[in-house]
Design goal:
mainly alpha
Length: 166
């Protein structure tokens, strides 16, 4: 009987220890921003976004010069024009300013959309690589180190870069 109690106690202790061990999860961390910046696709995407931005900027600068030239011309000719003609000219200039402002806003929105569209597949590729490496190494959780104060733990950045070939 005493032997049976000892055996039951040992079994309960073993089951409890096994449950406790199974409840502990393996956790790793990675700086996803650093990973994405290191990917060649990101560099290409940033170059494309910068090129598009320069195109918009050149168009805006050209429009500003045109507006400035027209404004100087209208100011120089103002005394020779009728009051009605000067009012129409000023309305034209105001319309040009509003159009330019709308174009600037649209250009900014287009740049943001282009950046999102270009970076989305890159971030998805990075996420898939992180998941693959974490699963292969037996990690249940991978935390983003860019928003985390990390004391200890496995950093997967080198392993994921290796997986991506960078």
């Amino acid at each position: 009987m005493k032997h049976l109690k000892t055996l039951l106690f040992a079994t309960a202790l073993f089951i409890g220890a096994t449950s406790f061990t199974a409840a502990q999860s393996k956790i790793a961390h990675i700086n996803t921003q650093e990973l994405i910046k290191a990917m060649p696709e990101t560099i290409a995407a940033q170059a494309e976004i910068e090129k598009l931005g320069k195109t918009y900027e050149a168009t805006i600068q050209g429009s500003l010069k045109e507006l400035d030239t027209k404004l100087k011309q209208y100011n120089a000719e103002a005394e020779a024009q009728t009051e009605e003609s000067n009012i129409k000219r000023m309305e034209e200039v105001e319309g040009m300013k509003q159009s330019l402002s709308k174009y600037q806003q649209q250009a900014q929105q287009d740049l943001q959309k282009k950046e999102f569209d270009l970076l989305k597949p890159i971030t998805e590729k990075a996420k898939a690589a992180i998941q693959k490496v974490a699963k292969a190494q037996g990690y249940q959780y991978v935390l983003d180190a860019s928003t985390l104060v990390v004391a200890d733990g496995k950093d997967l950045l080198a392993d994921v870069k290796k997986e991506l070939g960078i």
